[in-house]
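User: quick one, fold this
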Amino acid sequence: VLEALASSARASANPVLALQLYDDVLSRAPDRLQSQVARTYLLSDTGDHGRAIAAAEAALNKEQKNAQLWEAYGYALRKAGQEPLALDAYAQMRALDPSGKTAAQARINLLSSIGAAHQAMSLAEAQSGVIAPADQLRLRLDRAAAHIRWADADEDTQAARYRNTDIALNEIDASLSQLKPIDTPNAPLERRALSDKLVALANRQRYEEATDLYTQASGMGFAAPAYARMAVADAYLGIKRPDVAKSLLEQLVAEEPNNLKYRYGLFYALSDLEQHRAAQEVGDEIVRREPRTLNRRIPELERENPGYVRSRVLAMLARAYADDLPDAN
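Assistant:
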């Protein structure tokens, strides 16, 4: 009866009462498995991570052959930010229940949450049916996003950048073939796939494809997030349409005034339009917003800000473009 009352209190968002009831149950029956497991989850969900982990470990010291206890322990560790130990707990759970899906699902979700998209997808592909099709699509898009980030890191090596971008595009296209962006362009997975494809196409310098996709998707009601619109603006600059890029970038600056990436883009759009005075104003604003040094509040880590030097060069170029050479000097 007490256990049922505790479960009801937990379900009705009364954790204090639930914890008191579980403690009462365990004071009478210390080895009561259901209450041990539920109490561990409850402590984790209320942020009492140390007690949750201690409770699970105490129970496991008495009974190490129970998959439910290992699952609760893994959950407590994950909530406490101890992901490597949580993976070990889920591995123990898997060893006790090799045919069960719960441990595999927990490992896949944990790997995905810490950015290990490739490992998560590999596990999902190796264990067909363990996760839902929508979750597998999400993992595929996670893996594509990782390749896009790697391409950005490899931007100085064109071959490596294109290789990673092409892998990302293949992953995204495979996902889009299973989705319905025409019908629901703003559903979470569809919107993400379209957005990431715009970024990948721009990174690949397939600018016309990026702008065509953006036009087509916008016609379907697609609401592109800021990072995708930034990529589209780059694509419009690439096809010599700085007027469209300027419009997009002005919107982005208005939405996120502190994002200097948008202001840099706007500077180049204005320069391409030969609106040099306006470009100079944007460049000067970037200089005002770029700090001279980074980590100024931590003397041991303070260092020069490369962005400040870049902003000064930009301001100089703005004056040179406007034939204001004395000021540029």
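User: anything notable?
Assistant: The radius of gyration is 27 Å.
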